[in-house]
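Quick question, first post here. What does this chain look like in 3D?
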Amino acid sequence: MRIKQAIGLGLSVLFGILSFVLPYEALGLPSEVALRTVGVLAITLSLLLTETFATPITCFICIALMYLFGAVPSFGAALSGFTNTTSFFVIVSFALSAAITKVPLGNRLLFSMMRLFGKNIKMILLAFMFTICILSAFISNVATAAIFVAVAVKFLDIYDDEADAKQAGKIFMICIAISATLGGMATPAGSSLNLLIIEFVQEFADTRITFLQWMVCGTPAAFACTLFTWFIATRVFRMPELSASTISAYRDNLRAESIPAKMDAREVYVLGVIVLMFVFWIASSWVPFFDITMVATVGCVLMFLPHIEILTYKEYLKSINWTPYIIISTMIMLGQYLVKNEVTVWLCGLIFPESLAMGAIIAVFIVSLIVFVLMVIIPSAPAIINLLAAPLATLATVSGLSPILFLLPLGMCAGNCIIFPFDTVPAITYAPGYYKMGDLPKVSIPVQLFIAVVMGLWVPAAAALVGLV
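> Answer (accepted):
Ran it through. Tokens below.
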């Protein structure tokens, strides 16, 4: 047993004992159930961060303990996250990425990016990130990440040395995760969370944010943070270098061997399905009937139509990685019961000050930091937004500020649940195994600090520029 594993086991046993012996009243918790829920959360985080077990096994432990500790009313309730639409999206998204890599479509996209930005490996990474950021501003962050993970895995074949490919893969996967979430805050269509915030702004500030107003606030922030992510990631981790001749040879070989001069019927079909899915994903921002997961499910099914049959079921099964599905489902369930058992109310009481009468820039910066801190404990963006919207609107009013100045950063920050791969997008990039649990925070924590700075400096100015405050 490694030292980290021993520490993880020791901490989990300690937290388990404390869950039953500490008086919940002395801690200010509302009930014994809340205390036991906090205990399970502490145990789960201890095992995950020390990597005592494989991540899915730790999730199974969390599910079992939620029932054994009495934090959920039944074992079926402990499995509730596995029926969530977000979790199911992960399963069907593997069919889309498998289809893109089976036909030459993924190679065409990779070739185009290399032709435009292929002078060196770092510029190719930056091209990946900005392309992802732009796409995820209009379609699902999860779908964008799933597609580009498949493209990146193909690109990593450029390395002859397996260790170099693994090292470069670590940087690419981390940057894909972060740039996909950052793109989500650029426009209202980038995330359903943005629409939720727009509704809360209407409720608490009696103001309707337009598409353009949101873009003025969100798009510059998204691009600035994407560029900062690239800068940090390529300095925190060593990027294995490639010569210009190696990149050029790989690009030419890719075109010669893997990209036909003309698209055949199967490739056109896959491209058509994906374009239609993009259209419906964008439309879902205004037409709720076009549920994002439903659209992805139909797109998945279309890859198996008889006679066309882009994928066989065996190929689909081989493409599925169950780790992100298990992580996301478990964290959704845990987030739900942190709210239901009133743990989140207790946490807010501990963290939030009574007033932030210190100027808009500093106040917005502090609010952004608080959101990120809470998301380590409650890695569920919808839960965080629903929990904090009303308290933050009240806090803004008490502090002499418009609720918009706190609600906009709440939505933008909550969408960037990237400290650990517990949310959907990071979980998808974590699944291929290029980086470990502790690698992501080395980049994501500096990025989140930078996001908080950008929120403080830009959002008040941009909101004033477009007449929101």
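The first helix runs from residue 3 to 21.
The mean pLDDT is 87.
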